[in-house]
Structure formats: C-alpha cells, structure tokens
Write a structure and sequence with these properties.
Blueprint lengths: L10 H14 L15 E10 L11 E2 L1 E14 L4 E6 L5 E5 L14 H13 L7 E7 L9 H13 L9 H16 L6 H8 L4 E6 L4 E6 L4 E7 L7 H20 L13 H7 L5 H26 L2 H17 L6 H11 L4 E7 L6 E7 L3 H16 L4 E5 L6 E4 L3
Parallel strand pairs: 4-6
Antiparallel strand pairs: 1-3, 1-13, 2-7, 3-6, 4-5, 7-8, 9-11, 9-12, 10-11
Bound molecules: alpha-D-galactopyranose.
The site of alpha-D-galactopyranose has 10 residues, from helix 5.
Length: 409
C-alpha cells in the first residue's frame, strides 16, 4: 500500500485537511447526514513493541509504545443505524448497518470490517453505538506490523461511542476491540496492539500485564530515539504460523498442568518448572515455552534498564529477545535478521530487535540522539544489497492513546 508511507503532518494540519475532506464529500451536510453541529475528529495511534513478543496471549507481559503514526476519522453523527466511511488511503467508500451485524453475516473482507467488528463487539458488550458518516485517513504503514488494524479499531471505538455514555477503561475497551477482531474479522490476535493504541502515553512505553489487563507507564529514557525499520518483506505466512504458535503454547500448558496444579497459562511457569517438566513436552513445544517464559523475565529486566539508563543491558536484552524469537520461537526471517545485523553495527545504536508478530514487518531500535541519520544511512546503503528489498526507516515518538480531538467526538 504505497500511500501508507506518507509523512506525518502535524496534528493541526491533519485536523484541518481531514475536516476539509469531509466537508467536500458530495452531500456531506445533506439530508440526515449530520446536518448540524461541528465535524467531529477522533484519532488512534499505531504501536511499536519494545520487548515482550508473543507473550500477550500467554497472559504475560509486554512493553509497547503508541507511536505518532495514526488513524484519523473526521465525521458527523447521523440518525441512521449505519456507518459510511470514505478512505483517503484506499480511495473507496464503504458502509455497514448495525442491523443484523454479526460474525456470521460478516460482509466485505475489506478495511471496513474492522470498523464493523468494533461496532459488533461494542454492542455485544452492551455499549450503545451511534451511526455516522465520515472520512478516514492513516499514516500507519499498512501490513507492516505497526498495528494499523488496531489503530483503525480504536479510532472507530471513539467515533462509534455515544458521547456521555459510560466508557470502559482503556484495557476493557481494548479487550472489546480485540474480541471484535478475533470473532468478527477472524484474526486470533492477543490484546497488546489494541491496548497500546488505547492507553498510550506521550514520551512513555506501557508495561502491560496481559493477565489482568492493567498497565503502568515507563518513561522513555532521555537521550534515546525510537527508530522503526521496515523490511518490506511479506508477512503472508504470519496468520497460520501465529495460530500454530498459540496452539503449541497451549499444548505446553496442558502437558505441564497435568503434573503441576494451578498452572493455567505460561505466565504461571518459571524456568525451574519448565526444566523439571521438559521431558513431558515435544521438543518444539519446549522451545516455544522457553521463549515465552524467558521473554516475560526480559520485559521486567528491560523496564529496570530503562529506569536506570543502563544502555548495555538494553542492548543485551534486545539481542537475547531477537535470538530467542529467531531460534526458539522461529518467527524471525532472513530480512529481519539482516536489518538487526546492520543496525547493531552502527555506532550509537543501543539496542535492536524484530518487533511484532514476525515473518517480516519491522525492527525496533533504541538509538542515541544524533545517531538516527547514521542508522538510516547504513540501512539504505546495505539492506537492499543484502535482501533485494526496499527498506523504510521511521524515527517515531511515543504519543498519547486514542481519543477525541475535536468537539462532537
Ligand atoms: C501481533 C498480535 C499481538 C501480539 C504480537 C506478538 O502483533 O496482534 O497480539 O501477539 O503479534 O507479540
């Protein structure tokens, strides 16, 4: 999706541009089309995960940050039980009705399904929703592992919400959106992406405990930039491999729980327990479990290293996470490995690893201020030669989570 890679204009500029696009829709203010009141604006960020990969669906710990790559919707509520959205990214207009909305009658297999999924799940959770007509735009690269879908869901949740109605907290709202994606869209994701988009805090990462859906903020250390490098490699294996990994983890839990009472998820298993039960597990399952158990510990160690400004520890933790995802969990790729290789050789790059589900997508690097361009130059000079693919490099900032930007939202 070429258009997803545009620059990231300022908030004010985007608000003006998207509102103007809405006003320019044929009949934007026509009968029943939100004839009065201001145009409302909502936004929701994508995310990058610092560490804690494939732990969320094991009731573990993750450390993502919401980033300044965002989905925006400019809209006017109307009286109809329907949503009609025009995408500035794809250039098409799609709609759905609340009537008869259910996973069984899922419609279009397009981007609007994520909006419909959120509407279905909100209604299923007993939340009131409103219809609207609007325009949607995004600077989250699509299909790159930066959670463009979760951002679309969380922005939708704000547009759909009836102002003044009680709103669940960010964790509960993320769970509702996740359920929509699981049940309505049919993607078996964990809760991390929606949670990060919902709860982000400017200048901070979020330490999320996916067992209880609670989070704490962890300040990004002064002096470090967050850099995302996109491999440009296909993630087509991702969905089936993701589901296989999930089942392997579940099998590990089942086999260990036969001997260890009280074990409900990999979160309940530490390294010692895993070792004494290793003989019960198929070899592949043991490796998957080892990754998850150790990755949870690395998340806590990373939070401590960020607080202490311990750059060496950060480098080691990211390297260990990447190696574990490559060798034990087997979700890296030649392209992701090459990208990390190139990054860690650049002076000023503190830490680098693959981020997200894997099989392509992006890496995340922590980079000393002033070294960002050296990283970009190294990637542009070396990556294509090594892989034949065109990389993209984004210097991103941690931003606040989803919400209304302008009245009416
Ligand atoms: C995807 C999923 C998340 C999480 C990551 C891996 O992004 O949507 O829930 O499982 O992969 O950490």
């Amino acid at each position: 999706m070429s258009d997803g890679h545009r620059g990231n204009p300022s908030t004010a500029a985007r608000a003006v541009a998207l509102t103007a696009r809405f006003e320019a829709l044929p009949g934007a203010r026509g009968a029943g089309a939100g004839a009065s009141g201001p145009v409302a604006l909502v936004r929701a960020p994508g995310r990058v995960n610092l560490i804690g990969e494939h732990t969320d669906y094991n009731e573990g710990l993750v450390l993502p940050a919401a980033i300044d790559r965002e989905v925006w919707i400019a809209f006017a509520p109307w009286d109809r039980p329907e949503v009609e959205l025009t995408s500035a990214v794809f250039g098409d207009t799609r709609s759905f009705s609340f009537k008869g909305l259910s996973p069984e009658t899922r419609g279009t297999k397009s981007w609007i399904d994520y909006v419909a999924a959120t509407a279905w799940s909100m209604r299923d959770a007993g939340l009131p929703v409103r219809g609207f007509r609007g325009v949607i735009d995004s600077t989250v690269p699509i299909g790159s592992g930066l959670s463009s879908s979760a951002a679309l869901e969380m922005a939708s949740s704000w547009a759909l919400a009836v102002p003044g109605a009680p709103r669940p907290d960010a964790g509960a709202m993320a769970a509702i959106a996740q359920r929509g994606e699981n049940r309505y869209v049919g993607v078996n994701c964990g809760i991390m992406d929606q949670f990060a988009s919902a709860a982000g805090r400017a200048g901070h990462a979020l330490l999320i405990d996916c067992r209880i859906n609670q989070f704490k903020t962890a300040p990004m250390p002064a002096g470090l930039s967050l850099v995302v490098c996109e491999t440009g490699s296909s993630r087509k294996l991702e969905a089936s491999a993701y589901n296989t990994r999930r089942s392997e983890c579940e099998l590990g839990v089942k086999l260990i729980a036969e001997r260890e009472p009280g074990v409900k998820a990999l979160r309940d298993i530490d390294e010692a327990m895993l070792e004494r039960n290793r003989d019960r597990l198929p070899e592949v399952v043991a490796r998957r479990c080892e990754h998850v158990v150790r990755e949870d510990a690395r998340v806590m160690a990373t939070v401590a290293a960020l607080a202490d400004g311990d750059l060496e520890a950060l480098g080691q933790l990211f390297a260990a996470s990447h190696a574990s995802l490559r060798d034990l969990y087997e979700v890296s790729s030649a392209e992701l490995d090459a990208m990390v290789d190139i990054a860690v050789a650049v002076p000023g790059v503190v830490a680098s690893r693959m981020t997200g589900a894997g099989f392509g997508g992006c890496t995340v690097s922590l980079v000393k201020h002033g070294a960002e361009e050296a990283l970009r130059d190294a990637v542009l000079a070396q990556y294509q030669k090594r892989t034949g693919l065109e990389p993209r490099v984004y210097i991103v900032a941690a931003v606040d989570g989803a919400g209304g930007v302008k009245q009416g939202a």
